[in-house]
Amino acid sequence: TVLESELELIGQTDKEVSVEINGRPIVVDAEGNFQTTIKLKKGENKVEITAEDTAGNLAKKEIVVTYSEEE
């Protein structure tokens, strides 16, 4: 559970891999690093991270983040 309405996602993958978070393309630098901020709604938020290499190999990870305005 988080108390902020925005969540910063920072990650690293192999070079020349494309990354999408909730279907939105994310910029990956030359070393494979990426970061983005997503807005959360109250309650449960599903975050799907998808990575695909140039050979078409696909990896998916889904996390659930709960946003609450109160402690």
Task: Explain what you see.
This protein is mainly beta. It contains no helices and six strands. Strand 2 and strand 3 form a beta hairpin. It is elongated, with a radius of gyration of 13 Å. The relative contact order is 0.33.
Fold blueprint:
Blueprint: E1 6-12, E2 18-21, E3 24-26, E4 33-39, E5 43-52, E6 58-67
Antiparallel strand pairs: 1-4, 2-3, 2-5, 5-6
Give the overall average pLDDT. Answer: 95
- Uncertain runs are none
Strand content: over 45%
Summarize the main sheet: 4 strands, antiparallel
- Reading the helices and strands in chain order gives EEEEEE
Principal-axis shape equals elongated
* Strand order across the largest sheet: 3-2-5-6
Secondary structure tally, helices: 0
* Structural class label: mainly beta
Span of the ends, CA to CA? 9 Å
Question: Summed up, what is this model?
Answer:
With 71 residues, the protein is mostly beta strands. Helix content is 0%, strand content 58%. It is built from no helices and 6 strands.
